[in-house]
Amino acid sequence: MFENLSDKLDRAFKVLKGQGTITEINVAETMKEIRKALLDADVNYKTAKAFTDDVRQKALGNNVLTSISPGQLLTKLMSDELTELMGGTTAELELKASPTIILIAGLNGAGKTTFTGKLANYLKTQKNKKPLLVADDIYRPAAIDQLQVLGEQIGVPVYANRDSKDPVAIALEGIALAKQNGHNVVIIDTAGRLAIDEAMMVEIEKVKGAVKPHEILFVVDSMTGQDAVNTAKVFNDRLDFTGVVLTKLDGDTRGGAALSIKSVVNKPIKFIGTGEKMEALDVFHPDRMASRILGMGDVVSLVERAQQQFDEKEAAELQKKIRKNKFDFNDFYSQIQQIKKMGNMKDLMGMIPGVGKMMKDVEVDDNAFKAIEAIIQSMTPFEKSNPETINQSRRNRIAKGSGTDLAEVNRLMKQFDDMKKVMKQMSNPAAMASMMRRMP
Ligand code: GDP
């Protein structure tokens, strides 16, 4: 996400950071570089100019020139201004009404249906809600199928009426069913088109008028940059939506849509999609995003993602096992599955301050765990629970079975042993204290 922009901003700052004393001319030059970086990121010209004019004025007003660490001060200023540009504060969903009705709008291919599934999953698992999905696309039977598959995957029911050609009626039937079955959120996935189309707008306006939604979320593909912003503007003029969902941010190295939408459309970004999986959805926090863009990481989100994936009861069980030195390959395998669910590796690393920049040219393979998984899967249940019994002949068999080689199996066994040793030490306060004492 945002790699190109981060990189260019970093370079713009380098000039300033390298200077012993800073002059007004240096600041002006840096602002010019920053403006260029924003334009390259597909931020519209007016927004980019207003932004840099503002930062420059504040920088001079805040005595950046005489400060001891002008680079740091300017970074802080930039971070505040970027946060403001993206909406300032986090915009929460309005979920008080029961049922809360959420209408999902957007063009085909934007990621509407995927987001509908992700949102239901988020509300169910993070907000303790009982959602019902409504498939309200009467033109593409495949869209109904897709929503039903997602619903099944996340364990959320989907209302569809394949015989009806009336989107207003289908939406109302869905809401009636939700009331009957005690659902407190109804998410309506509406029909899109390939491009902005009058008939589509009229249809969705009718649905809006009939169901009176509490939230209308406009879904748009962030990779389309300024097009995304323009489409958002047209939809907003007609629908007056309550929030934007930016999808495919995992593939967006520029970030123009994220930076311009608020200032052009004046509606907040509420969610971002960061992958195809149902878990790849984040609430949008402008401050955290600014921090990531400036290469300062986002530890808060990283910890939150970990908390979402790790169940407290499971964690306690695991600790017990570690203390008793009973951590085995079953546990190891399930830990890998949980880490994988946290999202794409490069994205996760980018949340650690400083690491994103360091890793920018390194290919991080999301299949990094494949070989390890194959090796563990080739073990028998007995071997998984009793790693110490895995001798040479067993290792040979496992290597063959997993399509890896003996060296790779040996390496994993060694890593596993080392990990167990460290875990054992960390779970023993006395050993931990003695280890700390030995540290330089
Ligand atoms: P719709 O036509 O608007 O309903 O779009 P879909 O939900 O069918 O999504 C279109 C394609 O984009 C699918 O292949 C999705 O898997 C993919 N997609 C959706 N959201 C994301 C995202 O956040 N990241 C990535 N990488 N792909 C996504």
Give a topology summary.
Layout: H1 3-17, H2 24-40, H3 45-61, H4 70-85, E1 100-106, H5 112-126, E2 131-136, H6 141-154, E3 158-159, H7 167-180, E4 185-190, H8 198-211, E5 215-221, H9 226-239, E6 243-247, H10 256-265, E7 269-273, E8 281-283, H11 286-293, H12 299-309, H13 312-323, H14 329-341, H15 345-350, H16 355-358, H17 370-377, H18 381-385, H19 392-402, H20 406-427, H21 429-438
Parallel strand pairs: 1-4, 1-5, 2-3, 2-4, 5-6, 6-7
Antiparallel strand pairs: 7-8
Helix pairs in contact: 1-2, 1-4, 2-3, 3-4, 4-11, 5-6, 7-8, 9-10, 17-19, 19-20
Structure overview:
With 440 residues, the chain is an alpha/beta fold. The chain has three domains: 3-85, SRP54, nucleotide-binding domain (Four Helix Bundle (Hemerythrin (Met), subunit A)); 100-296, P-loop containing nucleotide triphosphate hydrolases (Rossmann fold, 3-Layer(aba) Sandwich), CATH 3.40.50; 322-438, Signal recognition particle, SRP54 subunit, M-domain (434 Repressor (Amino-terminal Domain), Orthogonal Bundle). It has helices spanning 3-17, 24-40, 45-61, 70-85, 112-126, 141-154, 167-180, 198-211, 226-239, 256-265, 286-293, 299-309, 312-323, 329-341, 345-350, 355-358, 370-377, 381-385, 392-402, 406-427, 429-438, and strands at residues 100-106, 131-136, 158-159, 185-190, 215-221, 243-247, 269-273, 281-283. α1 packs antiparallel against α2, α1 (3-17) runs antiparallel to α4 (70-85) and α9 runs parallel beside α10. The protein binds guanosine-5'-diphosphate (GDP). Guanosine-5'-diphosphate (GDP) binds next to α5. This is Signal recognition particle protein.
